[in-house]
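4.2 Preliminary Data

To establish feasibility before requesting continued support, the project team ran the inverse folding procedure on a target of 283 residues. The structure was first converted into the token representation described in Section 3, and no sequence information of any kind was made available to the design step. The complete token record follows.
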């Protein structure tokens, strides 16, 4: 079955906004896998993983508010975890299921961690992709240097050059993979030029809350009780190996898998990465 794009309305203190999501597999399958992207990426990042999992799951990949085909929020200061978690709860209600499995990359992992730690959480298995309860100040500064900027590009080749540069920590990818990662992250302006797919103002609260030291979120982690897998790029500047060691001992006592030759974050587009995720979720 091919992917289907759908939409739903979510609420904020400033009104309603539209959230877009892609759905793969049997729409009547009660086994649901929710995949949520990173800070500046979009739902289509999970196309390869979703195609690999759609035989076992109804795979649902949302564009978080302000990204992809989802609406921009009226108040940019709402681009933070509480609103994102609220939107995902609404999405799960729309799916009409009691439980889900969750794969989250970076920001998507933090949303999943927050949701998984709540009382009566619907999350029964959690994959945390290159994020954790300690986020390095260095990585936040690196992201802040480009995130929320609104460059325009004359053509897709120029856009791809930008995507390759800011996402170099993704590690080695084929030319076709880089072109895909570029195409899904671009939107066309009225004059034919290209721009990144997100509301530039999503960076406002990010920059306003930049800490002067590493960001620690251990209460989120310690509240999680479901089986949890942590993925780490061996060269990640966001998730330290020492943090992973503590994640193995605290909270859900996660299993940790590290991928060589990758920084922040594994794209889950390659067979070795997909196999680790699939084996954990279906075990």
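Position-by-position output of the design step:
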């Amino acid at each position: 079955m091919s992917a289907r794009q759908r939409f739903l309305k979510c609420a904020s203190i400033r009104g309603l906004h539209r959230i877009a999501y892609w759905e793969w597999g049997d729409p009547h399958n009660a086994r649901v896998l929710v995949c949520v992207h990173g800070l500046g990426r979009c739902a289509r990042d999970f196309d390869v993983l979703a195609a690999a999992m759609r035989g076992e799951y109804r795979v649902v990949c949302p564009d978080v508010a302000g990204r992809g085909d989802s609406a921009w929020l009226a108040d940019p200061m709402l681009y933070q975890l509480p609103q994102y978690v609220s939107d995902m709860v609404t999405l799960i209600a729309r799916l009409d299921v009691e439980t889900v499995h969750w794969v989250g990359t970076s920001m998507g992992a933090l949303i999943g961690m927050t949701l998984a730690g709540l009382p009566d959480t619907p999350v029964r298995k959690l994959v945390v992709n290159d994020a954790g309860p300690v986020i390095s100040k260095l990585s936040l500064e690196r992201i802040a240097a480009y995130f929320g900027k609104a460059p325009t590009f004359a053509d897709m080749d120029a856009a791809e050059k930008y995507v390759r540069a800011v996402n170099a920590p993704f590690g080695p990818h084929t030319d076709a993979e880089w072109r895909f990662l570029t195409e899904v992250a671009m939107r066309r302006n009225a004059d034919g030029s290209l721009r990144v797919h997100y509301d530039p103002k999503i960076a406002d609260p990010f920059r306003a809350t930049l800490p002067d030291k590493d960001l620690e979120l251990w209460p989120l982690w310690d509240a999680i009780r479901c089986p949890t897998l942590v993925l780490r790029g061996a060269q990640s500047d966001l998730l330290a190996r020492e943090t992973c060691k503590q994640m193995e001992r605290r909270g859900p006592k996660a299993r940790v898998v590290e991928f060589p030759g990758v920084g922040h974050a594994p794209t889950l587009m390659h067979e070795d990465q997909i196999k680790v995720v699939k084996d954990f979720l279906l075990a």
